[in-house]
Amino acid sequence: xxxxxxxxxxxxxxxxxxxxxxxxxxxxxxxxxxxxxxxxxxxxxxxxxxxxxxxxxxxxxxxxxxxxxxxxxxxxxxxxxxxxxxxxxxxxxxxxxxxxxxxxxxxxxxxxxxxxxxxxxxxxxxxxxxxxxxxxxxxxxxxxxxxxxxxxxxxxx
Amino acid sequence: xxxxxxxxxxxxxxxxxxxxxxxxxxxxxxxxxxxxxxxxxxxxxxxxxxxxxxxxxxxxxxxxxxxxxxxxxxxxxxxxxxxxxxxxxxxxxxxxxxxxxxxxxxxxxxxxxxxxxxxxxxxxxxxxxxxxxxxxxxxxxxxxxxxxxxxxxxxxxxxxxxxxxxxxxxxxxxxxxxxxxxxxxxxxxxxxxxxxxxxxxxxxxxxxxxxxxxxxxxxxxxxxxxxxxxxxxxxxxxxxxxxxxxxxxxxxxxxxxxxxxxxxxxxxxxxxxxxxxxxxxxxxxxxxxxxxxxxxxxxxxxxxxxxxxxxxxxxxxxxxxxxxxxxxxxxxxxxxxxxxxxxxxxxxxxxxxxxxxxxxxxxxxxxxxxxxxxxxxxxxxxxxxxxxxxxxxxxxxxxxxxxxxxxxxxxxxxxxxxxxxxxxxxxxxxxxxxxxxxx
Lengths: 157, 439
Ligand SMILES: Cc1cc2nc3c(=O)[nH]c(=O)nc-3n(C[C@H](O)[C@H](O)[C@H](O)COP(=O)(O)O)c2cc1C
Ligand code: SF4
Ligand code: FES
Description:
The complex is a heterodimer of chains A (about 160) and B (about 450).
Chain A: H1 4-14, H2 26-37, H3 42-52, H4 56-65, E1 77-82, H5 85-89, H6 92-103, E2 109-110, E3 116-121, E4 133-135, E5 139-141, H7 146-156
Parallel strand pairs in A: 1-3
Antiparallel strand pairs in A: 1-4, 2-3, 4-5
Chain B: H1 31-36, H2 41-48, H3 53-63, H4 75-80, E1 91-96, H5 105-112, H6 114-128, E2 132-137, H7 142-157, E3 173-178, H8 188-195, E4 219-223, H9 224-236, H10 238-244, E5 252-259, E6 265-270, E7 273-274, H11 275-281, E8 291-295, E9 304-305, H12 306-310, E10 313-314, H13 316-321, E11 330-335, H14 340-354, H15 360-377, H16 385-396, H17 404-429
Parallel strand pairs in B: 1-2, 1-4, 2-3, 5-11
Antiparallel strand pairs in B: 5-6, 7-10, 8-9, 8-11
Bound molecules: flavin mononucleotide (FMN), iron/sulfur cluster and FE2/S2 (inorganic) cluster.
């Protein structure tokens, strides 16, 4: 269900914890699974649980509790814009409007070609770089202007 | 990395760099950069000379270092709570989960000076007898998490963490753990649950982590900036660190300055710096506008009108005398064009969204606060709403498992206290007194 490469990454995470606490690796295992699959289906979550030897419900609880896991399919590029206070004060709404206009979608929607999903995020701990968004939970893009947004969208096309 | 991802750095010669002292070198996060400033020498000295744990704790107490995660608890005192003798593994945890809006200082530590944090944790491990450590890093900063992982590899290869360090019996393993988007995991017991691979729901205290922490074992939890201050303290002595600051607030502090300033960013300055000087370092209020209000320590600290903060100094006592608190040093600056009602709505939404839901007053109360502020912003407010908000806030405070409940009440109470006419105007006219618009 997961590639050898992903399993090797999960095995590395497991070395961080005592052998009788395999559940501790569930957060990173789910992250690694999501990186490979794009989102976490019930089957993927169950597979991760089985691999770690924990009850499926324990993995599902974690997958539903934390904001960055996706339990529904998302586009190839998930763009999460922070709209919390420091970003709001630096006009994150201008960035949100621009993205929505360029992509023709609202929050929690995906473009018809399956390329982009737009999400609203809470503080990402990078407020000095506001306004900002991150892409696929990985790449942080800061000090955004409409022009920078256009350049990034162009690059991802 | 594409050009538009490159971070912008502003520095000032009024800073005093302790935690960020590798800045200015070509590759500040590298092991070499840290060795160039005398890095890992303190760890080596303590371990090789078998310096007594009590001597280390004495220096930390003298330094006046108080927890930089927001609560300001004296670090030396916290360390003395760890059981000295324990038949089993003791743990050390670093809290790099900063997700309180306006807080972004620990990120700069792990991406610009990760080795000093590693040395600080190793010194704490030596002092407290911890065998294993975890640094729990906020979910959204993946690129910085990777920088920290690389630093761990370097430190391991160089023999600064791992088994039998400096050919002694002292061993310390340190790992990075990655969060995945939950503000509540910044609370230390929720963070511990999360390390164990569970939902981040705070535990009842007592028992405290010092007796029942990670995997049920004695655990010391400190903030990133707290640990990172330790090597400097041991190099120069506790008194020297204390002398960098003011009474009751020893040392330097990283202030995260965000919002309406010309040069947002982290500035590490001596404790006790006048607010006006710090504002000046950050370039002053942007666009030549007037200052309206400042949240000095993150949204769990009370908002201050310009007049109240202009004369204040940036330290624990200075800010509490002026009617707020230092918190995590997350200074959010608002200019004259800011609508306080709309701002409060966003903060209330945040606490509602991030409540873990296990205590009724917090779960129901944060939802209620958000819905009432929202209806005011949408022009549907009623005259009794301000009293209702005050009532609901007072009912959350002090009746919950963790401090998120109090944190949610603070902005509501302080915004209404200082900007009441703006709220009344919004309710009466169905639009903002500042922008003239409704949502
Ligand atoms: C809701 C909530 C969020 C918190 N978030 C953080 C955080 O992001 N980083 C942090 O160091 N401490 C945070 N704390 C405080 C921690 O519980 C804990 O006091 C701190 O990590 C201890 O380290 P220190 O004594 O070095 O400050 C938070 C507390 C609460 C109640
Ligand atoms: S106060 Fe709120 S966040 Fe804290 S434990 Fe209770 S419900 Fe969870
Ligand atoms: S408020 Fe947007 S990153 Fe902190």
